[in-house]
Amino acid sequence: MKKFSFLPIVLIxxxxxxxxxxxxxxxxSTNNASTGDNGSNNGKADTTATATLESVKASGKLRIGTxxxxxxxxxxxxxxxxxxxxxxxxxxxxxxxxxQPEFIETQWDGIFAGxxxxxxxxxxxxxxxxxxxxxxxxxxxxxxxSKAVLIVSEDNTDIQKFADLKGKKAGQSLTxxxxxxxxxxxxxxxxxxxxxxxxxxxxxxxxxxxxxxxLSYLDLKKQKPDAPIKKVDESSDASHSAAxxxxxxEDLINExxxxxxxxxxxxxxxxxxxxxxGADVSK
Length: 283
Known about the structure:
With 283 residues, the chain is an alpha/beta fold.
């Protein structure tokens, strides 16, 4: 009897199996490429790509970078809940986009690095619009306007305008650009660590005035209406703040701008603004 060898048959079968497995791998790879192109993978957004309206809608959430330690814009209340003006604005914007807000708390020093690395889609944190920042990032329409104000004790009658600071003591943070306004008007600068210390020095009569942020003043008067201070002058120049995005998020920014405009038109923005400042801080 002639001896029959099974080796050729085995080799043929193995070749067919390898070929079939290769086709399955290619099919899986094609599917993955397809989900990657539309910004999702098994229903999850690609968190390494620049945020777009499509990717945000696909994920069902807007990832928002914020400090959480900067009252009244973003901070924790007595119960530990994240709250604040920017938090409420961003929450309402997310609602109008049809997604949930996801707040990612980050120290200010690292907040732009977080945006660069796509840890979040946007930043709501009273970020001022500057020419330098506009070179690298895109902004929504401004939703906060702040001016420098001149604050004195409520019984002060000598200082009525910035020019009256000549020869007077002004409590100022040395790292603030507001200090330059006091200096340029001839004030003697008394160094402070910030707004609260400047107000303490003012109410204790150790300084005559402070040039400070108008929104900080409104917040203080909202929290402590009986504080013995008053605003006597304000600058004509204003600082505008907005939400910040990476370049390439134009369609998302357009929808955020629409949401902000609708909020102002239907009174929602004013309600939030008065809650924290007792005034409309959009103008």
